[in-house]
Amino acid sequence: MMPQNEFIQRDRSRHPPALTPDYKTSVLRSPRLALWSLQNSLSEMTGPVFGQEELGPLDNDLILNYAKTGEPIGERTIVHGRVLDENGRGVPGALVEVWQANAGGRYRHRNDTYLAPIDPNFGGCGRMITDETGAYAFRTVKPGAYPFRNHVNSWRPAHIHFSLSGSGFAQRLITQMYFEGDPLIPKDSILGTLPDPAARQRLVALLDLNAAVPLDSLAYRFDIVLRGTRSTLFENKLQGN
Amino acid sequence: MMPKMTPKMAPQLDYFQETPSQTAGPYVHIGLIPHQAGFDIFEKPFGNKLAGPDTPGEHIGVEGRVLDGLGAPCRDVLLEIWQANTAGRYNHPADRQIGKALDTGFRGWGRTGTDFATGLYRFETVKPGAVVGRRGHKPMAPHVNLWLAARGINIGLATRIYFEDEKALNEQDPVLRMVEPAERRETLLARREEREGAVVYVFDIRLQGERETLFFDV
């Protein structure tokens, strides 16, 4: 039998359009023709399955997973939240991957030439699989702001990149998390690609003192919503759900 | 005069809304393919080899470049593929096609980045078999689902790779058949090459402009 788990249509007005000239690189990298709408088949409804045994015990601990001579310098921070779908259900087994700059805004990447130094004890990436409730958590140092060549004086707010794989390839999502209260947030050309201020707000993680570890780490909470599945009430399925 | 209805005043259903997308940025490799960023960190990294020597099926390479609106290769793109095995079955619990063997050793997924120098990407996999079509439709021709993200791309782009030497099946494919005009359909066909006995399908992606690749809203 065919599975009955087609995804709810993506609301593209909640996402950035492809062409956003204030973020200059998008000018030559945005399709000019319309997307071709495709109803879900098995190709879209299925996706890769990941297992806990593929991950190492420190993969979600950015304070320890690249520690060489000591621990990284910076604001010790826990980031946690739940991965939910549009029906409000937790998404278990989702692969969450994160990457970020160090406390000074420098990335461990051969193409990053920013003059702030590399931290010898910080790699800047982690990964985890959500538990049966859709919860995830990782530990890191808070990233610094950094300049980028967009306008002459463009600075990215502190942010952590997130990559999400749910149960279907059509749920694939990459986004960025920002930190509550950062004054660079309203000036950012990349967060500014989102037309809806409410959608922008969704990417700002809130300080979560309840999850902080006293005398150890602050915490931020960031919930993520992936596409939900459509409830197919009457389509080759007269008996309902 | 009726008051203007704003979204705020409209009654709300209690669905959640998908988290908005943001660009993967130029340093996507750090998180998803750290070796390319210049360091190794995870014991078992994800990569571009989907098939091992024992994987049943025709072993193929899939390679190409991603070109921007000026025809210049984009050298910082992340690409992922998702495909069925040689029998046409996805390694996923929702695939309950009958009579098609599941190969648990073949996940059907891989990721890679375009090379910083040449702009080339490459996957090593097997050619997928035909998969059942959407309810009531004919089987889909063999295809590989491709998703890409990069600096300057605000939301990941989805497309499909079909094989130019599957002419008969392509003509019956329910997705290709709906694409008009034919020139747009052709942007989804990979070119078959043989190099010292190895089969390579070349699939270039044009983000914008002349012969722009067809991208799907899936």
Summarize the structure.
Chain A is built from two helices and twelve strands; from the N terminus they run βαββββββββαβββ. With 241 residues, chain A is mostly beta strands.
What does this structure look like?
The complex is a heterodimer of chains A (241) and B (218). By secondary structure, chain A is mainly beta. In chain A, 4% of the residues lie in helices and 25% in strands. Chain A is built from 2 helices and 12 strands, in the order βαββββββββαβββ. Chain A has helices at 42-45, 197-201; strands at 36-37, 76-85, 95-99, 125-129, 135-141, 146-148, 154-156, 159-165, 173-179, 204-207, 218-221, 224-226. In chain A, β6 and β7 (154-156) form a beta hairpin. The longest helix of chain A is centred in the C-terminal third of the chain and has 5 residues, at 197-201. In chain A, 44% of the residues are buried. The model of chain A has no long low-confidence stretch (mean pLDDT 95). Chain B is an alpha/beta fold and 218 residues long. Chain B has 5 helices and 10 strands. In chain B, strands 1, 2, 3, 4, 5, 6, 7, 8 and 9 form a 9-stranded mixed beta sheet that branches. In chain B, β7 and β8 (198-202) form a beta hairpin. The longest helix of chain B has 6 residues, at 167-172. Chain B is globular and about 50 Å long. The N and C termini of chain B lie far apart (41 Å). The relative contact order of chain B is 0.19. The model of chain B has no long low-confidence stretch (mean pLDDT 95).
